[in-house]
Amino acid sequence: MRGLWAGRLSAVLILVCVLAGCTSSALIVPGPVIPSRPVTKLLVFIEENHSLSEMVTAMPRTAALAKQYGYATNYRAIRHPSLPNYLAIAGGSTFGVTDDAPPASHPVSGQSVFEQAIQSGHTAGVFADGMTAACQQKDGGTRYAVRHNPWTYFANERADCQRFDRPIGDLAAAVSAGTLPNVGMVVPNTCNDAHDCPLGRADDWFANWMTRIFAGPDWKSGQLAVVLTADEDDRSANNTVLTVVIHPSQKAHIVSAPLTHYSLTRLYEDVVGASHSGSAASAPSMSDAFGLPLP
Questions:
Q1: What pLDDT score does 151 carry?
Q2: In this structure, how many other beta carbons lie within 10 angstroms of the beta carbon of residue 147?
């Protein structure tokens, strides 16, 4: 019954906004009210090169979701440039990488959170916007940047990367079918992640995906958590980036505890019950900071 009334309220809000001449960025519909259950699936969206304050100011739809659910005010990326941060999230280490060179230049021998999930009997997947072939090792397609797709760098995991690192088209099907992976990552292309285009474009792109996710079985189960963060800032705010946590357990939750990308690695591992790798072992717990229920 709550879901029915939430759907009717959403329709009324849309109609009122349209009649009033609202812009798309002002049209913010709350997610449906559902019960909170332990997080068994974690889907992470990664934006590019903007600070916390910049993202909150220029991403109004995302900021509204942050205020409705939860966000961190003291979450920092690891370093500059992009690639080390993606590797940190995916593997609990930068693996000594200090540039944005492709996988051929940086074959990583460690284990990723994606492989940890698979080895522990769970599922994993990356959905890469603009990519034209599974586990694509070079830039190409529609603004696809391989440096933003960390699984491609883990040299010993090529077979699973080929199977489960897929173009963005597979995301819509997974959302609709309720088959999102336990450990998931969404990599927008370099326009939709605000690297080459305005933050407003990234805001609408993410909000539109969240509209689909809210309507899907995984969200309605109460077991899916969605995180949005940024790989790094633009060197203006000590690498402090907006990090949003969307789960039914979160209600206007503002977290000031210090967190890093290694905390996100740790959260991935906590969701599937895997051991903490590299710097994730000593990183502040994101599940504790947000009070996320775990299996």
A1: 98
A2: 24
List pLDDT tens digits, range 47-102.
999 999 999 999 999 999 999 999 999 999 999 999 999 999 999 999 999 999 99
pLDDT for the residue 30: 54
Regions of the chain short of the pLDDT cut 50 = 1-27
pTM: 0.90
Report the pLDDT value the prediction gives residue 278, as an integer from 0 to 100.
Answer: 98
